[in-house]
Amino acid sequence: MPNTVYFFGTCLIDLLFPRTGLAAMRLLKRAGVRVIFPQGQTCCGQPAYNAGYRDEARRVARAQLDAFPAAVPVVVPSASCAGMLKVHYPLLLADTADAARADAFAGRVVELTDFLTRVLDVRLTDLGPPIRVAVHNSCSSRRELGVADATRDLLRRLARVDLVEPERAHECCGFGGTFAIKQPEISAAMAADKTSAIAATGAAVLVSQDCGCLMNLGGTFARRGGGPVIKHVAEFIWERTSHDE
Q1: Which of 94, 118, 142 is the endpoint of a domain?
Q2: What region does 88 belong to: left with phi over 0, alpha with psi -120 to 50, or beta?
Q3: C-alpha dist (Å) from residue 77 to 18, 126, 218
Q4: Mean pLDDT, rounded, for 165-180
Q5: CA 188, 164, 142: angle at the middle one, nearest 5?
Q6: Do 36 and 140 share a structural domain?
Q7: Euclidean distance between the first and final Cα of the chain, in Å?
Q8: What CATH number should be reported for the domain holding residue 24?
Q9: Where does a domain end: 60, 87, 118?
Q10: Domain span at residue 178?
Q11: pLDDT range class, residue 244, cuts 50, 70, 90
Q12: What is the pLDDT of residues 47-92, one digit of tens each?
């Protein structure tokens, strides 16, 4: 088991979901892992990359390679950002002087729930009351990284959690970064379908490992009224298993 990891905070966690970042790092530390948070880290570069600004994305990617130099795992509490670091950095920097560095870096990147279940095999003591929880797995977790099962595996380790999956769970929530801006009508229709399916489960809480999806679904629920509490899986698990909350 690694005794030291880097933590990649992500933009959305830094700006909108700071409690998620703290919860994720607390879970890692409680499992006996030393967590390093490089102050020089920035965005993963995905917005620029997806918008076609490849030169700008390369500059961002090289900055992250510099910020995480040691040969230890880079734990990312977002499958979308982890996918950018792990899958797209080697493509983005192929045939450049940084190709080998990008490949080595990608090999160290691991999504948080995958790390907690597969690498650390954490054991959780559920301190909360019985509750029904719905899971939304992002497209990146399902299709790019193949780690969607890790979130459900982690939640099943909580004894009093009734885990439910909405109908058509494999479908996108409609966020897709700039897709939600470029195709707002289609995005809104997808989010409406997704929130209707989630509401039908009767779940009190909706969790995901991606804050972009939670932001999109949470905003849709807020406009329609009602719906479950929205939480990143790390924050939900920390609250259920810690005496501090």
Answers
A1: 118
A2: alpha
A3: 12, 21, 18
A4: 85
A5: 60
A6: no
A7: 28
A8: 3.40.50
A9: 118
A10: 124-241
A11: low
A12: 999 999 999 999 999 999 999 999 999 999 999 999 999 999 999 9
